[in-house]
Amino acid sequence: MRADQRFVGLPKAFWANVRTISQEAGYTQRRKGEVKVHTVAEMAAAMTACGLRVTHLTGKDGTTELGYTLERYFAYRADVLNAHVAPLLMDAPEAKALFEQLHEQLKPTCPIPMNKQKGEKASPNFLTGIVNMLVQANSEGLSVDYDPRELTTFTKDGAPLRTLARRVDGCFPGPVNPVAVWEIKEYYYTTTFGSRVADGVYETLLDGLELEEVKHREGIECEHVLIADSKYTWWECGRSYLCRIVDMLNMGYVDEVLFGKEVVERLPGLVRGWVAAARQRETG
User: What pTM does this model have?
Assistant: First the structure.
């Protein structure tokens, strides 16, 4: 899933309103188990409850353009999560079946890491394994770093220009001047939505902020992809954080988010694009 062009490039003040309204009016309808759509009246009530003015939303002559744009955005966010993302998310048995199908089909030689569970839950990291297999199958023999053990660095004339604050989960073709980086958030055996899961969202935001800065200041582009799955963790427990992920996508801090089964459909095309970019870079 990529950003909706209607909301790309909007000013930071727009997203300040999105966050404030979402915080005060809520992200979800718990009884229905769905993401909320906020009306302008509900937005105004949220502003009043926060002690903030409402005239930038309602105006003297009715709803302002900002108010209408916010209303459209909340409707889009709810629809894309309720109708598109929810059916894509898998639980552990579904992810295992897909992993085994692809493993049999692709016969990979790439790394397949194991999870940190014990006993019956000990198994391959299904989503990471799926990602690694699909990247290898579509990378046309080019180098891939499936588990970078160093910080991502962008250089100029052979010297570091920017180095990201944290390690990512994968780089193409490598952690120095990558064409693309990706992060994987799979939580199939997590029983609650804890701080570790929430921190994963904010880690992606940090990477996105740094990549945005190096793009605008230095003209260096690197595709930033987030891949997430676990029906229980993300949908049953963490719908508000799915909203934050959609916000982050449309704010431009991540280029694409792949949810669950979507990885099979979208990742091969993304990797082929990375291959073309890497080869173009080599030929100058």
Answer: 0.94
- Per-residue pLDDT of the chain (284 residues), as tens digits, is 999 999 999 999 999 999 999 999 999 987 778 999 999 999 999 999 999 999 999 988 889 999 999 999 999 999 999 999 999 999 999 999 999 999 999 999 999 998 877 777 778 899 999 999 999 999 999 999 999 999 999 999 999 999 999 999 999 999 999 999 999 999 998 877 778 888 989 999 999 999 999 999 999 999 999 999 999 999 999 999 999 999 999 999 999 999 999 999 999 999 999 999 999 988 86
Token code pair at residue 119: 């006993």
What is d(CA 230, CA 122) in angstroms, rounded to the nearest whole number? 16
Give the bridge partners for 183, in sequence order: 226
Overall domain count for the chain: 2
61 is in which domain, residue-wise? 5-88
Distance of CA 96 to the CA centre of its chain: 22
Q: Could you tell me the CATH number of the domain that includes residue 152?
A: 3.40.91
